């Protein structure tokens, strides 16, 4: 494997590769407005901003020059710790519990904070992978998404009625929208599934779509499994493999529709600045992988075997219904136009860290050559870009 690739699995065992990829990262806008502080002068609100994805989003907004970031959180103490005022003077905080309805105490302040926002990024939702799915837990998972989104949309509606300019609502969703399958492929035109997570995603999106009726541009991001070296599933898998206990769960044949954190952040930024974004988007790599392939690659990069499978029966006994998160999956593919980036007036598909998954997961020599070529183009573009900025 060419170490220049910086593919996310390499980051787990080869920190140098990951750091190299981070140093070469460029922000590529689909509107052709590459690089720069594209959010300068903007006010953006983020709910769920202390979570795994949300904290990265807040940092990206600041890096992109947002004048003010309003962080909606139910845990102000945690938020102050993650974003201390001395280091983040342009981050404002407001209490927001996405799992409960509107209250007289909270609603006026929320209205003021969201007034004249250029965009609202709604990521709030109870984590899916924490504990068994009891009936109480299922209600919390659903309410934190559906009720919270309903409140935000209602506030945006009132602000528009009171004279505020319509805003952009970027609302999280998930690939669970499509249900699960070991054989079918899903794109944005595919219908919703019928299981628990699909029903939640469908209701979640329905609440968000209501914002469009009030003139607010609405973007739905159906996120795949977000990968980053500093959190999420990858961070949990690495110590297991380092302890020689790694291996696939269940059959290992279940699909994992994943996406690199940097790509999520690029899509969020693009969706804020580009009016061409509207409706639902699958935010996933165009190269989904089988769980067993991921385990094999991770083991190889860490120099550890992927030899200890976890039987489905044990997971079902331990986790109940929530075991489906790892035992079942779906092959979700993004709209190719979403992933097309502009390099020196040439358009190629996908960033190298995503494209290189073809080679990294043992695909054809032709795929390996294609990905190496994509990587070299990115490197060439970045060098030219750096030189132009230094002149």
From TrEMBL:
InterPro entries, per the entry: Epimerase_deHydtase, NAD(P)-bd_dom_sf, SDR39U1
The NAD-dependent epimerase/dehydratase domain covers 45-282
From which domain of life does this come? Eukaryota
Q: Which Pfam families does this UniProt record tie to the protein?
A: Epimerase (PF01370)
- PANTHER family according to UniProt: EPIMERASE FAMILY PROTEIN SDR39U1, SUGAR NUCLEOTIDE EPIMERASE RELATED
Q: What is this protein called?
A: NAD-dependent epimerase/dehydratase domain-containing protein
Lineage, uppermost ranks: Eukaryota, Rhodophyta, Stylonematophyceae, Stylonematales, Stylonemataceae
